[in-house]
């Protein structure tokens, strides 16, 4: 499962970059093919709300999408330089 | 770590409720106490954008927040009755 390796990586990188936000979405498929579109839309929405609260360098955002069995997962890994408030 | 048990539970419940969205936020602390506030605000923002795309029963949303070491995690587990689009 991809989301396990996602968090395994988190541990490795913790000592390198101390200020990070990681977001993981996992969606069980509805069988009508709408899950990938939904996850993609939620990714945009969530990145937008995060941008309202933090200064995010686009180059500091790493995305990883995985489809495995009935589950679609999206990992968003953001390095945070500073908060806005 | 709490987020591991979060996903362990996911596997157990997969056969019970097939249409779910799970969102996990993990934030490494900034040392100024702002992480809990930030995670709480992001939770509200993210639930709002999810509600724009799906009909969510408030009773079908389960939240779990955990602080462990330098990491604050928030798990949002949503049962989805149907999509809006």
From TrEMBL, chains A, B:
UniProt keyword list: Cell cycle, Cell division
Pfam families on file: MinE
Domain of life: Bacteria
Gene3D superfamilies linked to this entry: Cell division topological specificity factor MinE
Any Gene Ontology biological process: regulation of division septum assembly
Family per similarity comment: Belongs to the MinE family.
Function summary: Prevents the cell division inhibition by proteins MinC and MinD at internal division sites while permitting inhibition at polar sites. This ensures cell division at the proper site by restricting the formation of a division septum at the midpoint of the long axis of the cell.
This protein's name: Cell division topological specificity factor
Gene for this chain: minE
């Amino acid at each position: 499962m991809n989301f396990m390796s996602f968090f395994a990586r988190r541990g490795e990188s913790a000592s390198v970059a101390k200020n990070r936000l990681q977001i993981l979405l996992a969606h069980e498929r509805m069988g009508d093919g709408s899950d990938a579109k939904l996850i993609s839309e939620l990714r945009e929405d969530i990145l937008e709300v995060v941008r309202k609260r933090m200064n995010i360098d686009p180059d500091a955002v790493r995305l990883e999408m995985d489809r495995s069995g009935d589950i679609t997962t999206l990992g968003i890994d953001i390095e945070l330089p500073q908060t806005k408030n």
